[in-house]
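Following up on my earlier thread - several people asked me to post the actual chain instead of describing it. Fair enough. Here it is, all 155 residues.
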Amino acid sequence: MGKYTVAVDDHLILHARVGVTPGQERDFRSTGQSVPTQVPIRLLIDTGSKRTTIIPGIARHLRADIGRSARLVTPSGTVTTDLFWVRLEFPEAGLVAFPEILVARLPMPAALSQFHGLLGRDLLRRFESFEYEGRRGCYSLRDRPGVLTWFRRWL
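Reply from S.P.:
Thanks for posting it. Predicted structure:
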């Protein structure tokens, strides 16, 4: 679908919208309940994080289906939390949406409270490429192979 390139000031950030999955939306409508609105969020790209996370307040707002429990290793220790299904879209970036992904419910540490979660390796590996060019101060996410992708792989 596209390539998203942005300048980096301090953190690698990706703006997104999180909502319920199409199946959950259908379930809400069939039972006469209101469908929770999508929420604009700021995800901190964390190449060291194995799993994508969302803060508990957003999980409560979405009333998302809980998947299973998982143990996560964080810098402050190991925690057990619930995983839940959500839809992630990247309208500002023009990247492909993930209609159903499993994310962890986890609060952000105080120093990172301006973010709504982490974009971990579980989703980063689904993109065609993730490039960070430190000297130029920018990063790029590509959701499909570019024109010269075959050439870079050949080298």
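The mean pLDDT is 82. That should answer part of your original question.
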